[in-house]
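A quick aside before the break. I want you to see a complete sequence-to-structure record at least once, exactly as it would be stored in a machine-readable document. Don't worry about memorizing anything.
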Amino acid sequence: MSMFDVTRVSADIGDSQISFETGKLAKQAGGAVVVQAGDTMVLCTATVGSLRDVDFLPLTVDIEERMYAAGKIPGSFFRREGKSSEKATLTARMIDRPIRPLFPKGWHYETQLVAIPMSVDQVNPYDILAMNGASAALAISPVPVAAHVGAVRIGKLDGDFVVNPSEEDLAELDLDLIVAGTDEAILMVEAGANGVTEQEILDALDIAHSEIKKLTAAMEELQQKAGKEKMTVEAPSIDEGLINDIRSSHGQALVDAIATEGKLERYEAIDKVKDEVVAKYAPESDGETDEKQVAEVKAAFGAIEKDTIRKAIAVDKKRPDGRAQDEIRPIECEVDISPRVHGSALFTRGETQILSNAALGTTRMDMRIDTLGLETSKKFWHHYNFPPFSVGEAGFMRGPKRRDIGHGALAERALVATIPNEEDFPYVIRVVSETLESNGSSSMGSVCASSMALQAAGVPVSAPVAGVAMGLIKEGDDYIVLTDIAGV
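That is the input. The structure line, written in C-alpha cells, reads:
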C-alpha cells in the first residue's frame, strides 16, 4: 500500500492531454501540483508566508529551470544553473499578470509561486504547463483567489490554427498567441505574428477560450477532490463619512490638480492637495502624529483620487491631459543621434522619450542560448533599459529588472518579423532602447525608435513598425477605449 494519497485529473487540450496530480511531491507546500503533457513535467507550488504590514500584494513568482530536465549540463564554468534565463523570467511574468488581479483586496500575506520544470521532452513547451500548474496549485492551496486561470497557446501553421503547437513548430508559426483567462473572461493576451489580420486574432481568441474552459473545469475538479480550506481575509474598508468630508472640502481642488498639464507638475499638484487633506483631517496633537489616522486619511484620499480620474475619463470622456480618447500625444522623430553608432534614432511622444541604438556584427557574434528549449542561438535581439532618472527619481542601477527584460522581449517580438534572413543580410543585429523619459507606453516607444534605428543602420527591414499602448476603463455601464495611454 502506497504512503501517498494521490489525486489526478486531466483535460484533453488540442491533440494532447494535460494532467494535474497532487499528493505525492512537495506535500509541505501550501499547494503542490505536478502538471504534465507528454514527457514534459512541471512541479508547481503555492505557499503562504507571514502577514506583512504593507499596502500592496506581496506576490512573487519564480521559474527555476533545471538543465537536467532536458538531459543537459549547464554550460557555465561552474556547471550549475545561475540567474534565471530570459525565458524563465518571461514565463514568470505570464503567470503573474493574469493571477495577480484575482487575489482578494486586503491580501497582505507573503505569497510565492514556484515552478520547476522537472522533465522537458522538447515537444511540449513547459511555459503553458507552468501557467496552468501555478493556478492549479493556488486552487488547492489555502489562498482564496477569485477564480481558476487556464492558459493555452494558439498557433497558425500553414494557414491552420493549432492548439498548443509543438516546440519544433514554434519557429515556423505565423501566429504565436498565448491566452490566459477564467471560464468567463480573458485576462491576458501575449502574441507575436507575421502580419496576421485582426479577424484571425479574434478567431484564435475564440478557440483559446473554449480550451481554457476545459482547463479551469479540471482545476475545479482537483480543488473539490484535494483542495485545502481557504483562508478568510477581510477587505479593507474606508470610512465613507471621511470620504464624503474630504470630497466636500477638497474634491474640486483635486479635480483641478488632476487637470494639470505635465506629469511631474500634476503629481506635485496632487501631492499638495493630499498634504492639505492630511493636515486638516489628521492634525498633529502635542507635536505628535497619529500614524494610523494619517494612513486612514491617505487611503481615503487615494480612493477619491482613483475614483475621480476614472469617472472623468470613462463617464465625462475627459482625459487628464485634455486629449480626446483616440488622440495621440505630439510626436517628434530624429535619426543619427549617436555619431559612432551604426544606426540610432530618437522617438519622443509627449513625455515619453526613447533613444534606440543598433549595432551590427558578424555572424560569429550571435547570441548563444543555453536553455531547456531547442533554440541555440539568435541573430537579432532587442534590449530595453529603464534608468530611474527617466521618471525624475534617484535609484539603484544594478542590471536589468524583470520589467526591463519583459519590455525588451515585447518590442523584439514586434520587430523580428521584419528582420531579413541571414542569406539576404549576413549580420548579427543588436538594438538597445534607452528610456530617457517615461510617462506611459515606453515599450511601444521602443518599437518605434528601434524600427527607425534599424533603418538608419541600413538593415533592409521588410516594413517599418510602430507601436501604441491601448487601454480600457469601465465604470458601471460607461466605458472608454483609450489610445496612447499615459502613466496616470
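Two observations worth writing down. The domain at 331-467 is CATH 3.30.230.70 (Ribosomal Protein S5; domain 2). The two ends are 60 Å apart (CA to CA). We'll return to this after the break.
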